[in-house]
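Worked problem 6 (solution included).
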Amino acid sequence: MKMPTTLEQFRSNRNVLFWSLHAAGWAAYGLTQYFGALLYEKPSSYARVIAVSAIAGFVLSMPMRYIYRRLWSQTPRARILGVLATCYVTALALRIVINLSYKAFVEPDWQAQTLFELFGGTLSTTYLLICWSVLYFGIKFYESQRKQEEAMLKAVALAQEAQLKMLRYQLNPHFLFNTLNAISTLILDNQNKKANHAVTRLSEFLRYTLDQDPMKKVTLRQEIEALDLYLGTERLRFGERLHLEYAIEEHALEALVPSLLLQPLLENSLKYAVSAREEGGSVRIEGRARDGRLELSVIDDGPGLREGIPAGERRGVGLRNTRERLAVLYGEKCRFTVLNAQPGLRIEMALPLEIAPPGTEPAAARPTARLSGGVGA
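Solution. The predicted structure is:
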């Protein structure tokens, strides 16, 4: 495993990064002021004013970080106004300290005639703090972009991993043996039409999985059509032992979901609720749009969750991979819950509702299976 470098560790610790840059910035300010004082032949006592200015700037500008954290989520207009107000108020306080230190160390006899003289130089100090603010937001924006890019790369990796695992399952010799054996039985029984239909469905699904971009979002209708292709081969194995029911609202069918999202969940249900029991079982897929969210459920009548097993290890890796993939794609905007349905298992998902534009076509070959928006077997 690659060990992080010192620079990477430094960048990953945002507190260390901020305080280091903050201290370096005000130290640089002090040095430039000192060399400027030498250039203009300021008295030696002026170095004390510079030292006080740098320290005061370091201390008085610290609260700006916490103010800007709140401004970060505001509109651009509110953010700009907030930054200008913060810089000006901070500059007023800083100029009082600078001017009083100037009186104490350079001109003890100087007396401010008006209150405005005590705030002299506020405008130039405001410009300095605006530069501080621009640097702060620039670094924050860069870090935000970098995190988004890392999240996208992680999402791509998880999606590709999920697709490869699905393809590995589909190409598993045991799976192909059972499917081809069922097709062979149909041929021996002179049910050539059904056998040909089964081969077509199998090839369509395999072609779809190979062509589908793992990062592309498809409509829920297309996702269900892909599931129907997958089920076309599974029904050869299970026959009447498998009962599938769709309960999906028409409006929800046009919502966008990550491609190949439901297949590992359905595969999980077939493994535990249908394959493991002689009498078979049933699976129900529900979908609806509510309050700006797409709510999906996969429900089976299998054995459900076994007690005493950590939640992350229950019912194989399919559920865990789906949970992680959704977390990367949507963050805290999504919900993924696994519950006992008594009997059986209920998997619930809630995603941000995104409706596909009219006339949108998938990039990959569109599955041609029949879709039932209501109840089907």
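Discussion: The chain has two domains: 6-148, 171-352.
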